[in-house]
Amino acid sequence: xxxxxxxxxxxxxxxxxxxxxxxxxxxxxxxxxxxxxxxxxxxxxxxxxxxxxxxxxxxxxxxxxxxxxxxxxxxxxxxxxxxxxxxxxxxxxxxxxxxxxxxxxxxxxxxxxxxxxxxxxxxxxxxxxxxxxxxxxxxxxxxxxxxxxxxxxxxxxxxxxxxxxxxxxxxxxxxxxxxxxxxxxxxxxxxxxxxxxxxxxxxxxxxxxxxxxxxxxxxxxxxxxxxxxxxxxxxxxxxxxxxxxxxxxxxxxxxxxxxxxxxxxxxxxxxxxxxxxxxxxxxxxxxxxxxxxxxxxxxxxxxxxxxxxxxxxxxxxxxxxxxxxxxxxxxxxxxxxxxxxxxxxxxxxxx
Amino acid sequence: xxxxxxxxxxxxxxxxxxxxxxxxxxxxxxxxxxxxxxxxxxxxxxxxxxxxxxxxxxxxxxxxxxxxxxxxxxxxxxxxxxxxxxxxxxxxxxxxxxxxxxxxxxxxxxxxxxxxxxxxxxxxxxxxxxxxxxxxxxxxxxxxxxxxxxxxxxxxxxxxxxxxxxxxxxxxxxxxxxxxxxxxxxxxxxxxxxxxxxxxxxxxxxxxxxxxxxxxxxxxxxxxxxxxxxxxxxxxxxxxxxxxxxxxxxxxxxxxxxxxxxxxxxxxxxxxxxxxxxxxxxxxxxxxxxxxxxxxxxxxxxxxxxxxxxxxxxxxxxxxxxxxxxxxxxxxxxxxxxxxxxxxxxxxxxxxxxxxxxxxxxxxxxxxxxxx
Lengths: 351, 372
Prior knowledge:
The complex is a heterodimer.
Chain A: H1 15-53, H2 55-86, H3 93-111, H4 115-138, H5 146-168, E1 186-189, E2 192-195, H6 196-218, H7 220-230, H8 232-237, H9 242-268, H10 274-289, H11 294-314, H12 323-337
Antiparallel strand pairs in A: 1-2
Helix pairs in contact in A: 1-2, 1-11, 2-6, 2-7, 2-9, 2-10, 2-11, 3-4, 3-5, 3-9, 3-10, 4-9, 6-7, 7-9, 10-11, 10-12, 11-12
Chain B: E1 4-7, H1 11-34, H2 38-64, H3 71-89, H4 96-116, H5 122-140, H6 142-145, E2 151-152, H7 172-197, H8 199-209, H9 211-216, H10 221-246, E3 249-250, H11 257-270, H12 278-297, H13 310-326, H14 330-342, E4 343-346
Parallel strand pairs in B: 1-4
Antiparallel strand pairs in B: 2-3
């Protein structure tokens, strides 16, 4: 096990800034290098794909993969938010998003509110519920002991899935979309079709990621997030309210997850298990991007989406149902070759 | 306060342990002979099978501090290994168990090496993908696995002629299966007990409690974790083989993600850091998955939809949370607390404790002993 101690102010005061710069530069180089490797792999496969099936088909698959990947990136973003603040992977993230999507669906279906309002209602309700769950079920545990917290998130997964199945049943339902869905509502790119729904979804997702990235890198809340993530004890001494910080990370993550669910539901149909696969793709995306990097979540999502679309599309033996296998291999490959992910930081411990 | 106090290793303690052991063994041996119903014998046999899987998961979660949500895949791998060897290659059932062990050890190591080499909760993410992937893989190779139709063996396992159970009664064959499975399971419990008490078992505890200190004292942390995961997968594989001996039919839906999560529920309910906890855990598992599921199936909730079975999921989630909050040591911890009300067993002082006594003070009382 490697025990490194980067990010630590070096003892001679003069070296502090230089040391930081060197580390930052090393991190940037490492990220650039691994992004380059991934791009090279994708490019090499693309050459094969274009020769194999023609440009139009290739473009179509890239568009489909990237737009799906943006959604995986959004769910990965929710995972990353909770991971950054607590160091725990929330296995109930998909179930919470599914529940929020059902709430939005109920608002549209029963109360006939406009879809935008319904999605906002779903996001607010799930954020509130997540804040409550954090307060009641997560906060009582020692934040440095991850095992019981993970078990609680698994219990939540089980209970939320069952509750949704009980309330709404297993029949798949159509979910309305925010964007025009006509058969000719698309942009034509080299013969491939980029439907407005997919484009809109991707734009919303990118906007959310950019907004969150800016918020968390510029605001006091973001500072508190990073503070809690790096050292609980010191943050407490500095007067950061640990519980409230973690609580807000759970709330924001749940709202982002619900938004992702509402954007994914029109294409996948809505039933209590519709987020399960997406959650696993999101694990792959988060691992690939680096579990503690918000931008990495989006990059990881797009790359995962592309990898799934291209591999299952061009290797006939794999077939469509093997997307889960692709996600699995992405996770394994990242852990084997670059455990901190494309844009993540290496974790450090002091003995 | 306890009614009796005996010290560990004394004659009374030995007699108590032997007595309890013999009583338990006699109970398990007589059990199928006094039960008249085939269904109940099968239920008990299932409890024994699942207890082996839960035992393996306990080695990983309770003793090594890693969490796996993919044990359904290893149970399935063991089950499919047995059924393929029996149905396609005419192997005897029991001879397939070592093959299951080997297959699952290798598969566990292959999954564990990338995930456990590095610190953190990566094993959980990898194994949840493994659990989701396993049914897909089963359907990918229908010529081996039978695909979505499942796979069956034509002949059940039969006992040799000298065996005392009459196979020509309705309860005969299930009783034979029960005894075979019981013997294998007892062996697995013995192996687990010895692993935990061995050097590598102590290393597992150190890795669980303080990974950095363990590394600092020379324990190869990654190797110990990979060992724990592979062994745990092998236990799950044995459980899969035993399940096939009990019922020689497998299908992809039997080994889904929910099986993994329910195994975890059972482990936590039984007591994760205890070998014996696997038994109450398996009882909880089977009761939840069969009796309560059957009961809830008939419930008429929310206007006539037959989704009452979902109550099981909600109950299990609630149960899991309740145990983590109220009784983190599981049922077995509760039972131990009860026993302590009757018999207090005073641990033996560590060997050569006098050498390590604080110099300069003559203490005649016993040294501080470890908390149980």
